Every structure is written in C-alpha cells, then in structure tokens.
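[INFO] parsing input record for Nucleotide pyrophosphohydrolase
[DEBUG] input buffer:
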Amino acid sequence: MNDIDVAELQRRLAAFAAERDWGQYHTPKNLAAALSVEASELLEIFQWLTPEQSAAVMEDPETAHRVADEVADVFAYLLQFCQVLGIDPTAALAAKVERNEKRFPLPEAPEPEDRHSSE
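[DEBUG] output buffer:
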C-alpha cells in the first residue's frame, strides 16, 4: 500500500483544476453529480457479472485497468468535493467508523458453562 498523503492529492487536484480555470465548475452540486456518475461507471463494469466473475475481475489486465481508473475517478471527485466543503475525509471516515462500532457492537460471547456446577 502506498503512503500517499491525502492532503497532497487534494492540493494537486486543486492546482490541476485551477490551471485550467475549472474551479468555477467545482461546486458541491457539480462535484456530487460527477462523483455519482463515476461511481455508476464503476458499477457498470460489474453490472452483468456473476458473484464469482466479479470476485475475479482483477485477473483480466484490461478490466483491472478499467476498474482502477474508475476507482481513481471516484476518489478524485470525492477528494475535490471534500476540499470544496472543508471536510477532512480521513477524519470523517474515522468518526463514522467509531459511530458504527458503537452502533453495531459485536455480540457478547456466551459464558462458558461450568461442567461441574450440576454435580
């Protein structure tokens, strides 16, 4: 796994957009729509695959490349969306995981039975 800094990626994406004067189009609404479109393009790759085929999708280099490109597009728009709205995506995810851990606790393990208690 890469140790690429999310904030650095956001800076690079912002610079890329600014150099092309695209910032005017990067409103929360437009970025949310673009994020949805890219997520749909990722879904399209899997649309008619069986569960087994979908699990093996990265074995085909051409399909693997398409999946990776769509993941990159989704991630790029998500990072841009977060930057425009001032959301720290890693902090937001950490907070959500913590809430989910409290909301969906692991079931408590049953107490082991004392085999000698009935004697």
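[INFO] The domain at 6-100 is CATH 1.10.287.1080 (Helix Hairpins).
[INFO] shutting down worker
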